Amino acid sequence: MRPRWQQIEEENPWLDTQYFDFDQDPDVAIKYGVETGVLPCFIFLDSGDKEFARLSGEVSKVEILKVINSHKDK
Length: 74
Description:
Elements: H1 2-11, H2 26-32, E1 41-45, E2 51-56, H3 61-70
């Protein structure tokens, strides 16, 4: 999934993307309620750090872009 995200980031340089590893960043996993059965997990936050979408598992670029573009100006 990382190569897919890197492509999305290159095409959308305004995105602020942060990567966390479930095993290395347990505090972040607990904070957002991420469990081992739903990895990878993509949590989308607005400018006020409020979650507006969450995708889990192998997700297509089209699905990811649909979420990003539907909230781009919010």
